Amino acid sequence: MGSEHDLTRMGAALRLLRDRGFTDLPRKGATRRFEGPLPYARGSVRIRLEIDDWDFVEYPRIVLLEAPEDTPALLPHINAIGGFCYLAAGLAILDRYHPDHALAQCLDKAAEELNRLATDPQYRQGEFQSEFGASWNIGQIPMPWPILLGSIESQGRQVQGWLVGDAGQRSLAIGGKAEEIEGLCRARGWPAPATSASTCWIVRSDAMPTLPKTGLPRHLGEMFSWIRSWDRHAYGEIQRVLGERAYLAEPNLIVLLHTPAGWFGFMLELDEVKRKYYRRKPTFMRQSLHRQADTLAIQRLAAEEISSDFVHSRNLTYPSLKNRKITVIGCGAIGGYLVQALAKLGAGTGSGELVVVDPDLLGAENLGRHLLGFESFQLPKAQALKQLLQHQFPSSRVTAHPRSAYPLADLKGDLVIDATGEEAFSEAINFQRLSLPEDIRPPLLHVWLLGNGQCIQSLWQDTAKFACFRCLRRNDGTRAPRFEVLREQDQVKILGCHAFTPYAVSAPMSAAALAVDSIIDWLKSGAPSPRFRTRYAENHTSRQVKSQDLQPLAGCPACQAQS
């Protein structure tokens, strides 16, 4: 802060802190530090205020230097070294031009939050449960060991775990199938997982974990006591495992708990002599563990879900594309972005399949507007997209057909998408679909560009009640558009015997987004209305066409003749 105005503002901020009882501490690098009181209902606590961003893109940090009076050892939003998460990122915009107001806002919010945590047990419990993962994973010392959690059967009691990762940074990957873990390693460029796998025991609970009275468990006894306090059934399941011989075959006892708050677990290193001695009498080993429970240190396990079910549905409020067969014809600029989006929506997972069809190789002329880059140069587009998707989503089933879709052999499955942008082909596949018995016609989605990317359009065909693709052309011998969108014809460039329409990468990305939005509406309700959609670039000069459920064109030679 070098200007006169900046110095004035800084002076106001320092006066505010001084008035609130804060003293200036020695700087730590570029960080200004202050110490002072934070009042709440039961008095006040000493805090350290740390500011290294006077633009307030990052909130000032608050560290509690002492525990609030008469509170549990573990409080939500406060980590092991006193760091206080008093304001969720992005929740408030602090005024950089009035740093005194910004600091007052932060201190007042911190006091309000601390007061609720200290005086309201119900609020405390709710915050712990709603942010259980944060408390379990990063809130305390020692840090938990990371676990990558793949697909686990809903009723399974045992699952295998493999050490994965680079040397020096290993995680335990847990999944029902070795193929899933191997795919993860390939995608990350890690060495193949070890051939030997550890057994992990699964315990399920329908009850929310409650706030531990003495902090997060560090020993087996604390873990037993805590689990028993909120779910006796889950505690009993763990004791059942300890009464069986199987767990004694492993050097470590690994237990994963699935609760409404998410997955978490713990690991206990077993005494090698005892586990071999008690192999025939596991109940004796269980008794020994209970006798020493208060001295047996456990390792907390922090689970990060990587299963396809989690990855592809976590951000959705409607069903994903899991278990559906989706065929995309055309892997050009539109099709490339579209198939990636479909994979993110779960296409190719479960019993489903994502099929991509295109005869062309990726040329240098494609690179400026295609999802693929030089790593796929001169490779078949369909095959290259398959490789990319299986690298990004190893569990997805993708089938590539580097061939022409004509003669048509791909009109089957749950949805067929025509992303060719070639009107002659679109008319051919439209006719082919209408030639099928109505009860086996798959929904067909066309998507294309107009006016060098000025606008994009899509048409969803699912019932004879609404227009087919040919209905978009008049039936008066002129083949003029039913809706005159463009005021000017597309600019077309010709190189040798090859003609192409120039447009920027934003156009196919927008077209893919339009198609995806139709698919999302289909997933939500089964009725992707409006079936005919038009969107425009910001500075377009086109005529406005209303998105609508378009009625068939009278006398359409395709759908009306076939009906």
Could you walk me through the main structural features you see in this protein, from its secondary elements to its overall organization?
This protein has helices at residues 4-19, 99-119, 121-130, 132-137, 178-188, 220-230, 232-242, 272-277, 282-291, 308-313, 333-344, 381-392, 423-435, 506-525, 559-562; strands spanning 23-28, 31-40, 43-51, 61-64, 145-149, 158-166, 169-175, 198-204, 252-259, 262-269, 299-305, 325-329, 353-357, 398-401, 415-418, 444-450, 455-461, 493-495, 498-500, 532-536. With 563 residues, it is α/β, with parallel strands linked by helices. It folds into 3 domains: 4-130, Roll (Ubiquitin Conjugating Enzyme), CATH 3.10.110; 145-306, no CATH class; 313-562, NAD(P)-binding Rossmann-like Domain (Rossmann fold, 3-Layer(aba) Sandwich). The strands form 4 sheets. It has a 7-stranded mixed beta barrel with strand order 5-7-6-8-9-10-11. Strand 12 (325-329), helix 11 and strand 13 form a beta-alpha-beta unit. Helix 6 (220-230) crosses helix 7 (232-242).
Q: In terms of topology, how is this protein built?
A:
Blueprint: H1 4-19, E1 23-28, E2 31-40, E3 43-51, E4 61-64, H2 99-119, H3 121-130, H4 132-137, E5 145-149, E6 158-166, E7 169-175, H5 178-188, E8 198-204, H6 220-230, H7 232-242, E9 252-259, E10 262-269, H8 272-277, H9 282-291, E11 299-305, H10 308-313, E12 325-329, H11 333-344, E13 353-357, H12 381-392, E14 398-401, E15 415-418, H13 423-435, E16 444-450, E17 455-461, E18 493-495, E19 498-500, H14 506-525, E20 532-536, H15 559-562
Parallel strand pairs: 5-7, 5-11, 8-9, 12-13, 12-15, 13-14, 15-16
Antiparallel strand pairs: 1-2, 2-3, 3-4, 6-7, 6-8, 9-10, 10-11, 16-17, 17-20, 18-19
Helix pairs in contact: 1-2, 6-7, 11-14
